[in-house]
Amino acid sequence: MVDLLNNAQARERICELCRLFWQLGWASGTGGGISLRIGDTIYMAPSGVEKERLQPADIFELDRHGRIKKAAPGQRLTACAPLFQAAYDHRDAGAVLHSHSLDVVLASMLVPPGEPLRLTRLEMMKGLEGVGYFDVHEIPVIENTALEHELKDRVEQAIIDYPKSNAVIVRNHGIYVWGRDAGHAKAQAECLDYLCRAVVRMHAAGIDHLKYDRSAPDAADQDTACAA
Ligand code: ZN
Fold first, then answer.
1. Is 68 helix (H, G, I), strand (E, B) or coil?
2. What is the CATH number of the domain that holds 165?
3. Residue 30 Cα, ligand 1 centroid: separation in angstroms?
4. What pLDDT score was predicted for residue 227?
5. Is 19 among the domain residues?
6. What is the 99 CA–ligand 1 centroid distance (Å)?
7. 30: how many CB neighbours lie within 10 A of its CB?
8. Does residue 168 form part of some domain?
9. Which residues contact 165 (CB under 8 A, 6 or more apart)?
10. Per the count of CB atoms within 10 A, which of 10, 24, 36, 214 is most buried?
């Protein structure tokens, strides 16, 4: 089931998500970004604004290929636009979100260069599209750049290299997350934020987040039996 919003509802939905993200600390200091696609029209919050005060008239409209159809008066298109576009082009996303979640930033610092963030045996993994509790799920971590739009090639390559991930983490910066519509993308972002917070807290407690499991050795077998 995919959100089918009209033009006014799509604009209002972005404003609502911006307020929520700001309250979570994901879009403070004018950071972060939100976009969604309805059919062949992509809606995007503008750049460098107080996200919690955004109004429907401040939203940009772009075509399916990222060309501006309707600019917002007095506003700048977000530097996230080419990065959002990568998920629309390669994954047929219905919404793409960008957060500066501190827990994601801290989790990115724990990942060695060139490796993905690996997750396993955390219940909230089941909230991620196509991911199970016993999987070792990999989320790509790319290195940051001086300017946001310069991340485009790295984001695109990570999307291609990690087809099971619906997110790309940018080290010391934040995360790009997508889903089939705004609600789905929001749920993915919330699960990933929780999982990154779990990794950071486990690390602080001296727990290796890939080797911590104290479940009975046959727990995986039992799970398989239940599912059969
Ligand atoms: Zn950013």
1. strand
2. 3.40.225.10
3. 10
4. 41
5. yes
6. 7
7. 14
8. yes
9. 116, 137, 138, 139, 140, 158
10. 36
CB atoms within 10 A of CB 5: 17
The per-residue pLDDT for 183 is: 95
Q: Which residue shows structure tokens 């010391």?
A: 172
Burial letters 153-172, b for 16+ CB under 10 A, else e = ebbbebbeebeebbbbbbbe
Q: Rounded to an integer, what distance in angstroms lies between the CA atom of residue 175 and that of residue 191?
A: 12
Domain that holds residue 21: 7-227
- Count of structural domains, the chain: 1
Would you please indicate which residues are annotated as catalytic (active-site) residues?
123
Residue 114 lies in a domain: yes
Q: What's the gap in Å between 100 CA and the centre of ligand 1? A: 6
Residue with tokens 């290299």: 161
Q: Find tokens 């298109």 and name the residue.
A: 77
Kindly give the distance from the C-alpha atom of residue 134 to the centroid of ligand 1, in angstroms, as a whole number. Answer: 31
- Rg of the chain in Å (alpha carbons): 18
Q: How far is the CA of 170 from the centre of ligand 1 (A)?
A: 9
**What is d(CA 138, CA 131) in angstroms, rounded to the nearest whole number?**
10
- What is the number of other CB atoms lying within 10 angstroms of the CB of residue 212? 14
Tell me, what's the pLDDT at 29?
Answer: 81
Q: Which residues of the chain have pLDDT under 50?
A: 224-228
Residue reference for tokens 């089931």: 1
DSSP 128: S
